Amino acid sequence: FTFGVGTEINTHLLDKLTEQSRGYRTYVLPEEDIEIKVSDFYLKVAHPVLTDLRWEVEGVKAKEVYPKTIPDLFKGSNFSMLGRYSGSGKATLKLTGKVNGKDREFTFPLEFAKQTDENEFVAPLWGSRSVGYLLDQIRLNGESKELVDEVVRLAKKYGIITPYTSYLIIEDEAEQLGMNRIRRDESLLSQRVEGRTQAPKMKEAEDDLANDSGRGSVRASEEIQEMNYADNMAQTQMGRSRLEYTDPAGRQRNLADGVMNVQGRAQYLNNGQWLDSAIALQENPGRMTVNHIQFNSPEYFQLLRERPASAEFLALGRNVRFLLDGQVWEVAE
């Protein structure tokens, strides 16, 4: 475990040590009650239950599982893993660890479906953990194009809109717009803000990732850790209060508003229309054939009858553009 007090601490060094020791990091800011943080910290470390955990799955191939390492378990704590898999059918999860210094092994029979429409909330939670892991790599080891591109792709797809992802998305969309690779109405965040109004906050988020000490660095460490262990949707939207901006009409807005999740992927509300992130992530979205349908028309109800899965998208509103069965559908009043 890593426990830091104040803001003049090297969070990059401490977080690297935490990662190597399979622990959990905790920081206390000057305005926080240190007694509460110390008590919570002590409750975690005083009663170890299972340490040095390892896992493996037999029967299917698990990949991109987060968090990458399982922290030690203590009394009153719980833990979940989220990942992707290939294959289907019966499988066995083996969990090994130490109890009071003695080796223990636990096995759990599992059933992996070939395909399922259930538990759609899992996808954005997995997306948050994946983005959190990548942001930590950027923080601790330096930025690379591959890391940034993957953060942008995952954040767009799953609606992981935080101060740390939004500035990367807006920068990426500005580049795409400048090269005429996308139209303005195909951008997810850029069309919401004028660069002038959001630029200072974007720079602050960028600095928080780069700096190894200071209030912003501590905040980034704690918020990204929440993303690394996200078990609920609130943890996928860390730093939401710092995403406020003023739109061209002078109204206060928030970049994280107008983002919904349908069938495991994000939908973005821009200028009165919901746009499916699956369309925005296509290489050439403007070249895709679009099926135009008028809201409440006979064709609208025919779409509902013939493609029941469209109901979740149509429930968003009267103006939606979404990808279904390999086709783009646009409903408008």
Description:
It is built from 10 helices and 16 strands. With 333 residues, the chain is of the alpha+beta class. A hairpin with a 5-residue loop joins strand 9 and strand 10 (252-254). Helix 3 (122-141) runs antiparallel to helix 7 (215-228) and helix 5 packs across helix 6 (195-210). The chain is globular.
Strand order in the sheet with the most strands = 11-12-13-15-16-14
> Major sheet, described briefly?
6 strands, mixed
Beta-strand portion reads 25-35%
Q: Terminal Cα separation, in Å? A: 56 Å
- What kind of assembly state do the chains in view correspond to? single chain
Sketch the topology as an H/E string, one letter per element: EHEHEEEEEEHHHHHEEEEEHEHHEE
Parts with pLDDT < 50 across at least 5 consecutive residues: none
Q: Which key terms come to mind for this protein?
A:
single chain, 333 residues, alpha+beta, 10 helices, 36% helix
